[in-house]
Amino acid sequence: MHELAVTESILEISLRAAQPQNARRITKIFLRIGQWSSIVDDSIQFHWDTISEGTIASGALLHFERIPTQLLCLDCAHPYQPTSDELLCPRCGSARIHVTRGDEFQVDSIEIEND
Ligand SMILES: [Zn+2]
What is the tens place of the pLDDT at every residue in 81-90? Predict the structure, then answer.
């Protein structure tokens, strides 16, 4: 259900971006997804094929780029990438951490065809 809402917003953003370009078709959509985002690529593609039907984005190829998670220690200000089994700050062992990258989801760019 969550993925359906996300897929609808991808379609909306893409159509809005394509309109002022007089696009005949949207051929590719480049998406950036954080490594920690709960969104599943396959599920988006599945919804996409259904909801894009009948729009200029129908049949567009979705390209996913996964962004690695980056954390910042709030105690010693050390930025680091967590390993799969260790989230604590590798410098001071603190558990007070902030996610600076890797939980985002965005439409990075689109490719269109004009007449
Ligand atoms: Zn630290």
Answer: 998 788 899 9
